[in-house]
Amino acid sequence: MNGFDWNAAGDALPLLLEGFRVTLLATVLGTLVAAVLGLAVAVAGRAPSRFVTVPVRAVTEFVRSTPLLVQLVGAAALFTSVEPLTIGIVVLGIHYAAYTSEVYRAGIDSVPKGQWEACRALSLGPRRTWQAVILPQAVRNVLPALGNYAISMFKETPFLAVITVQEMVFEARKYGADHFAYTEAFTLAGLVFLVASYPTSLLMRKLEKRLGH
Amino acid sequence: MATEPLPLQKTADVAPADAAPGAAPAVAPETGHPLVRFDDVVKRYGDHVVLDGLNFSVRRGEHITLIGPSGSGKTTILRLLMTLEKVSDGVIWVDGSPLSHVRTPAGVLKPAPEKHLREARKKIGMVFQQFNLFPNMKVLQNITEAPVNVLGKDREEAEARARELLDLVGLSAKIDAHPSQLSGGQQQRVAIARALAMEPEILLLDEVTSALDPELVAGVLELLGDIARNTDITMLCVTHEMNFARDVSETVLMFDSGQVIESGPPEKIFTDPEHERTREFLDAVL
Predict the structure, then answer these.
(1) Could you give the ipTM of this predicted complex?
(2) Residue B137 distance to chain A (closest CA, Å)
(3) B253 DSSP β-pair partners
(4) pLDDT band, residue B91 (cuts 50/70/90)
(5) B118 contacts on A by Cβ (under 8 Å)
(6) Are B62 and B250 in contact, with CB atoms under 8 Å apart?
(7) Boundaries of every domain in chain B
(8) Which residues of chain B lie closer than 8 angstroms to A46, CB-CB?
(9) Does any CB of chain A come closer than 8 Å to the CB of residue B134?
């Protein structure tokens, strides 16, 4: 190899940015699924009935104990008629929901017992207790941790290439194979990841500070 | 604050028609059954027995102070009444109905489901030692949250009432503040307003001045005295403020080891207690 070919790098960039759009889309929608589903799992985990808590715990344990890659391939094999990108987003979301649910759980646990008791003393029903009192306080406590999972998910989107989603690393590999310029394509892809996630993590740190953590 | 008439009126039907004009009775007349009755109530935490076959009753409109050493079970009584805890044995009666039980068609009492408890709680309000205001809501919403969402009042009506109550507790200016912007004494006044907004028949006060700086205690006690004198709310108060017990309550119950060991009017308990334990306790706190 004769050093770094700047022409090849310039050549690959538009393709990579095309792939980056898919990466970004998968991250944003996947994060959304993980945020909503994780919350639902955390709340369901506190249900008074074991018929709810036991299956919920079993499913989260399963998701957490198997690799994302295996889940992606498995889901793609099961749902052959569904768009790979859709499968990717849903699997990413479910996979990360298993982790965000733990974050939410910690956030819910951090709401003082007195808040629950005040709700009971005022006869607030369970729905209103969660919605108006517990969750606003819990979510505020865990926002920084959730942000870190979003960044982490962003960096795992290359796994989607395995089920033929044309995200950035997929494009990099394709360009590398077509022009035998793997170094350029992958270096550039790495840079794009860095440029996108570093400011985001700075932003998260700022948010953390503002929330007084 | 106390000189103006309070926006809390005694309900007309409480004072008998033939009562001497102007002589508002401190205690409402007996109405057959007591408003609250503890019937052989036992509360255990594991092997630890906190209340051991407790019996006592409270008349409608009565203001009762529970005194006694720490760990004697005073707070547990309030928590049982608020249904924050379940009785281990025995029955608590409120207004002639079992509080934490329901009667089966066969006439047997069994522990009540959560839904029944939620309904039963509505006539009972509680003010906590640590205030427990909702930090994510402004003062106004803290007060209107339950009236709107539990009693089904419309927002405007609930807000108007909240303004009256804030006026009563002397915090009209703080209506848009967050709890974190208030002093402990102010937070406790908001908590009192929040409890009153639910129009409780019974108000439980759990060491409401214990977490306050000494200079803030008097204002809160004065407010509670006003409420006791100007409403017909039945009050049960756990406190270490013996002056409050003396000035506000008609009855003082002395607790020790999960039992009422002595009860009577404050002047009797404080000047001429019968029980040795009461004497020791009062010597220690007064």
Answers:
(1) 0.85
(2) 8
(3) B66, B263
(4) very high
(5) 123, 125
(6) yes
(7) 134-199
(8) none
(9) yes
Domain residue spans of chain A: 19-169
Q: Between chains, do A123 and B150 touch, taking CB under 8 Å as contact?
A: yes
Out of B82, B114, B136, the one facing A121 most closely (by C-beta) is: B82
Task: Point out which residues pair with B206 in neighbouring strands.
Answer: B238
Q: Is the backbone of residue B103 left (phi > 0), alpha (psi -120 to 50) or beta?
A: beta
One-letter amino acid of B270: F
CA dist., res. A121 & res. B13, Å (int):
27
CA distance B286 to chain A (A): 30
Residues in chain A where the model's pLDDT stays below 70? 1-2, 212-213
Q: Which of A1-10, A77-86, B139-148, B150-159 has the lowest mean pLDDT?
A: A1-10
B259-264 and B251-256 strand pairing: antiparallel
**Structure token digits, residue A206:** 């700022």
Residues A90-129 have pLDDT tens digits of 999 999 999 999 999 999 999 999 999 999 999 999 999 9
| A73-to-A77, A79, A150 alpha-carbon distances in Å | 6, 10, 22
What's at A40, amino acid-wise?
A
d(CA B53, CA B49): 10
Which of B125, B135, B136 has its CB closest to that of A121? B125
CB contact, 8 Å: B112 with chain A?
A: no
Residue B4, pLDDT > 60, answer no
Interface test with A, best of B149, B205, B207 (most A CBs within 10 A): B149
* Average pLDDT for B54-74: 91
Instruction: Tell me if A120 and B84 make a contact (CB, 8 A cut-off).
Output: yes
**Cβ distance of B146 and A122 shorter than 8 Å:** yes
* pLDDT value, residue A8: 85
Give the count of Cβ contacts less than 8 A between chain A and B: 61
Cβ contacts of B119 on chain A, cutoff 8 Å: 123
Nearest CA in chain B to A138: B136
Q: Which residues of A touch B136 (CB under 8 A)?
A: 133, 136-137, 140
CA gap B256, B215 in Å, rounded: 30
From residue A119, alpha-carbon distances to A126, B75, B146, B149, B206 in Å are: 9, 18, 9, 11, 16
List pLDDT tens digits, range B24-48. 344 444 456 799 999 999 999 999 9
Residues of B in contact with A114 (CB under 8 A): 128, 130, 132
pTM exceeds 0.80 for this model: yes
d(CA B168, CA A143): 38
The beta strand positions in chain B, using DSSP E, are 36-45, 48-58, 63-67, 89-94, 97-98, 101-103, 109-111, 124-127, 202-206, 234-238, 251-256, 259-264
**CATH topology (fold) of A19-169:** MetI-like fold (1.10.3720)
